[in-house]
Specification:
The protein is mainly α. The longest helix has 25 residues.
């Protein structure tokens, strides 16, 4: 497969996950989400779209760098790991915003964080740059986990 095709697929996949997740988010962000109590360190709503877009782009580039190195010969492990974190990323939007269930979202995001950490480690082993590109994602999801936990505690 030509590298340009790999790059388009690598970039397009997480961006598509973001678009689908955005559908769940948009159904509640102007209604339910405005009404619930949020931690004092919650950023303004406009921050989330650009932050996630950048993170999805970094994810895609990171995946591409690992793909062009044939996943370090560990595709059978790396591909399900990456797909799993993408799925949990999407499910968080469904649980938190779509179902309006912050507790279910919290369970999801904890597992998402663990899979991202495993992705960082495994991508790092194949390509140092690839692993480094996932660190902002891990940091953002760490922050998002704190936000999610705060929402759970403030709205019980």
């Amino acid at each position: 497969m030509p590298k340009i095709v790999k790059f388009i697929i690598s970039l397009g996949t997480p961006l598509l996950i973001g678009v689908v997740g955005g559908i769940f988010t948009s159904s509640s962000v102007q209604t339910w989400y405005r009404e619930i109590s949020k931690p004092s360190f919650t950023p303004p709503s406009w921050v989330f779209g650009p932050a996630w877009t950048l993170l999805y782009i970094l994810m895609g580039i990171s995946f591409y760098l690992v793909w062009v190195k044939n996943f370090g010969g560990r595709a059978q492990f790396i591909l399900p790991l990456y797909a799993g974190q993408l799925l949990l990323n999407l499910l968080w939007s469904l649980f938190f915003f779509g179902l309006k269930n912050p507790l279910l979202g919290l369970f999801d995001i904890v597992f998402l964080w663990l899979l991202i950490l495993l992705n960082v480690y495994n991508f790092w082993k194949v390509s140092l740059v690839s692993g480094v590109l996932l660190i902002p994602y891990l940091m953002w999801v760490t922050f998002a986990t704190a936000l999610n936990a705060g929402v759970v505690l403030l709205n019980k």
